[in-house]
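I hope you will forgive my troubling you with a question about protein structure. The matter concerns a single protein, recorded as an amino acid sequence and a row of backbone structure tokens. Please examine both parts with care and let me know of anything in them that strikes you as inconsistent. Here, with my thanks, is the record as I have it:
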Amino acid sequence: MIQTVEAVVDATGRVQLLGEVHVTSPRRALVTVLEEPGAVPGESALLAEAAVAVDWSRPEEDAAWSHLQPWPGGQDPATCAPKSCGIV
């Protein structure tokens, strides 16, 4: 199966893959060097934002992180006993 993955070639010719490649044994590869500069710092985060937003917007994610939500009434859990803060 042919796989395509983005990479950056530095000034010394070292190739850094920006994605994963799955092979079971050594394989030939072709490298095409483009005229445009390498990845802009932070570009990957910007490109991934939409995909991550879909994953993070699921109800399962809200439930998994709910223990980090603020306490009711904005109380500080470090200074508030659970019963006096309305937590039973």
Observations:
- The two ends are 57 Å apart (CA to CA).
- The mean pLDDT is 78.
- Residues 1-34 form one domain.
